[in-house]
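Structure tokens please, single chain.
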Amino acid sequence: MTNRINDKMQENKKLLSIYFTAGYPSINDTVQIIQDLENSGVDMIEIGLPFSDPLADGPTIQESSTAALKNGMTTETLFEQLKDIRKSVTIPLIIMGYFNPVLQYGVEAFCKKCEEIGIDGLILPDLPLDVYEAEYKSIFKKNGLINVFLITPQTSDERIQQIDEASDGFIYMVSSASVTGSKEGFGNEQTAYFERIAAMNLKNPQVVGFGIKDSETFQTATKNAKGAIIGSAFIKHLTKEGVNAIPEFIQTIY
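Here you go.
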């Protein structure tokens, strides 16, 4: 059976992926946000599993994580909320978080639960490639899960080739060496990096994350890549306008 992520990557269009934090603004908003995003034309969704010590997240996502944890969001709660999600949602769903909560839950049990629910992949920025390959790859594969790896402008060509070799689905291309939500647009440096990666002709498509916040940055990011991810800007919109204003935000990007 092919994975929904792979199917999506075959589509002849630039893909928009949206990241949000599960359990934010309110504990029970998770399912409505996912449904509204799909209905608004989003191609893929990253569901953030909040963690108390997020390494790559800027202030906006950190604050949403803190609020979600205060709201009572846990791994168990998220799985409970998502148990019927495939009755109403068809686009790829990815859980993004940190390895600690997965380890606490039990890697095998976590992956099995993801498969039951219909989760297509995981993004765990602090799970090293070699550890994944040695210890967890078979568990992910058995449960039909794609593990998405990140590259940055600082990642060496050799390392990028290794990641490409180990990857399936897509490579998460971090636009700059910073935390999420901290960049204002893209400069020549980022553009050169996007072009350099495109010229490597990797077997996996790339999806750009960090710094995409509007139509202009989406267009720039997807000039040389398959798609782009918006996180902080979407969370800011949710905070300000509420869950019912999701379609308006998505319309400003496309």
